[in-house]
Amino acid sequence: MMGETVLIAEDIFRDYGCLHALNGINLRVEEGEFIAIIGPNGAGKSSLLKIFTSLLSPTKGTLQIFGTKGNDREDVQDRIGMLSHDTFLYDNLTARENLLFFGKLYGMEHAALAERCDYLIRKVGLWKRAEDPVKNFSRGMKQRLSFARAIIHDPSLLLLDEPYTGLDMNASSLMENLLMENPAVTKIMVTHDLDKAFRLCSRLLIMEAGNIVHDVAANDPNARNFAEAICSSSGGQFKC
Amino acid sequence: MLKGLNIAFKDLKIESRAREIFISMVVFSLLVLIIFSIAFSDLLSSASKTATVASGVLWICFIFAGTLGLNRTFATEVQNGCMDALKMCPIPRNSIYLSKVIFVFLLMLLVEIITIPMFSVLFNYQFTGIIWVGIVILLGSFGFVVVGCLISALVIRARAGEMLLPVLLLPLSLPVIIPAVSATSGLLRGEDIFSLMSYIRLLVVYDFVFFAVSMLVFEYVVED
């Protein structure tokens, strides 16, 4: 399964004024890995994910994604998908219009995009609601559509920030199935849900105060102890 | 950059359904016209006196209606985190800015197309030299939108951003408002276009410089 190195982070720091959100993160992610980033609130999980998406620039350090560094990130953006607890959907557009809109921004050809939209709308179980405005959708339906939006361009790296927030059991289970469907896609998921992290992921990054304090395989006998100990701590960031 | 035009089409599609921004701009503009037509009712008998106040009345309508539009232009992007989704797409970030300029400029044009005939009716005024007046209004509106979209992006996530926008925008857009009002006023009073060329040149330069600068700095404005 392992092949190309998807992501190399070297000595990544991120400060918000006096607040040190990330304190020298070093990380290497290989193709096909499903990684969970866990830790208490304020550990720097979401900041790290935002740096991977290029929404945030590191204060210091270098990040290489698919062999491309820093300023040339536009070239690899079409290989990255992001699913967040924010839906990234326009309420006044229909489900299909949302997917078509983002597909066009990813430069997809019209025919291929229309076909992909149909496929994904069926896949996430929204075929009958495809022409309905998103504002009429439930939270679970929005999140399913949001998943379709995140993979509309068939990304090789999928970043997930608390993707299960606000989902009921059925929606949560459907989301799990969708996530596990394509093992070739590299996935990095920020979550507070330790059960899901252990069940779905192959590797856990346990963060505290802007550092990765444990980088362990999910089947490591000590992994759960590490995770529970850190996640039950009060967290917090270093201040100057 | 052309991919960014999809964002403008998307905004127009959303606005055609929600009609939140356009309706408020038109209603505001018409209310201002009605209030001024009542306040200046003594002037309505004289075309020359109406011409004196026409430029000010029209530009008050355009500028404040435009501010209403600018206040809402990035609101759809902030809702549900869509701005982040756009920033993650493989498009130059300034194409987001360009699309917003196109969107608000079109809205302003539509409002102006409605406002000018309404002014004519309410103030009993016959426009002369409408082509040059139109050109001045186009140049002035474009300059105003160019700066407005940048400021709007800047304040969108600020607390009380809607209050902040006019406070920052109006002083910054004075270099476009002053020549636009002066040139419109001159044209409506029947002055020769060549005597007003300095204003028009100023508008062209302002539009060009601020558009170029905004395209360059927008990426940093939307950076977290």
Give structural notes.
The complex is a heterodimer of chains A (240) and B (224). Chain A has 240 residues and is α/β, with parallel strands linked by helices. Chain A has helices at 45-53, 95-105, 110-123, 139-150, 169-180, 194-200, 223-231, and strands spanning 5-16, 19-30, 34-38, 60-65, 68-69, 80-84, 157-161, 186-190, 203-208, 211-217, 238-239. Chain A has a single domain, classed as P-loop containing nucleotide triphosphate hydrolases (Rossmann fold), CATH 3.40.50. Chain A has seven helices and eleven strands. In chain A, the strands form two sheets. In chain A, strands 6-7-8-3-9-10 form a six-stranded mixed beta sheet, with helices on both faces. In chain A, strands 5-4-1-2-11 form a five-stranded antiparallel beta sheet, covered by helices on one side. In chain A, strand 7 (157-161), helix 5 (169-180) and strand 8 form a beta-alpha-beta unit. In chain A, 44% of the residues are buried. The model of chain A has no long low-confidence stretch (mean pLDDT 87). In chain B, helix 1 crosses helix 6 (94-122) and helix 3 packs antiparallel against helix 6. In chain B, 80% of the residues lie in helices and 0% in strands. Chain B is mostly helical. The longest helix of chain B is centred in the middle third of the chain and has 29 residues, at 94-122. The two termini of chain B are 22 Å apart. Classes of the chains: A alpha/beta (240), B mainly alpha (224). Chain A binds chain B through residues 50, 53-57, 74-75, 77-78, 80, 82, 84, 86-93, 97, 101-102, 104-107, 133, 149, and chain B through 3, 6-7, 10, 13-14, 17-18, 76, 79-82, 84-92, 223-224.
